[in-house]
Amino acid sequence: MSKRDVGHYIHGQWKGTLDLEEVQMPEVKLSLKLGALSIDCEASEEFMKTDLNTIIEQLLELDLPDTGALSDSGTTSITSQSAPSEGQQAAKLSTTDFAVKMGAKSGSDLLMAAAANLYHTQGKEEFRRGDVLNEMKGAKAFYRASYGSNLSKSLETLTKSGKLQNPRSDTYALPYAEIQSTKRHL
Questions:
Q1: CA angle 25, 28, 34 (to 5 degrees)
Q2: Distance, CA of 4 to CA of 167 (rounded, Å)
Q3: Is residue 10's pLDDT more than 60?
Q4: How far is Cα 48 from Cα 59, in angstroms, rounded to an integer?
Q5: Would the pTM of this model clear 0.85, i.e. be above it?
Q6: What's the CA gap between 102 and 74, in Å, rounded?
């Protein structure tokens, strides 16, 4: 390669030349997306050949809310396929947003909106009573003190009706049917 006039304009004035022999242009663009983790970079083909597999393996070992799969597109990308999905993560809905979309009118309704937020937006497959209460309180337009007072009864009722699961003491999760039902509000 030789020197070429590849200058640029700065404030309307042409600025210099650039020695292309000294500049190594990245050859490959890489976009990685795994759950909430997103990495975009440009790197040499040599880096991609020698280090990419190691990096992907390390990313897959991280405790992220979902896993990814490689794509055969022009750039290498990892996209989320399991819940919470990429689109769900991007939604960033609050408990208030879910309460509005779900038409919450009771403490149990607000509790389900909080659970939907914890699962879909925050990526928590399991959550504790305190997490649910904090999310409910965060939805100020919907929350009433009586909802906090009756939270144990609401959790018990929703667990018995199958709208929530209780895998262990003070830990709750959305069953698959509720995940699918609340997903439509994203």
A1: 135
A2: 67
A3: no
A4: 15
A5: no
A6: 40
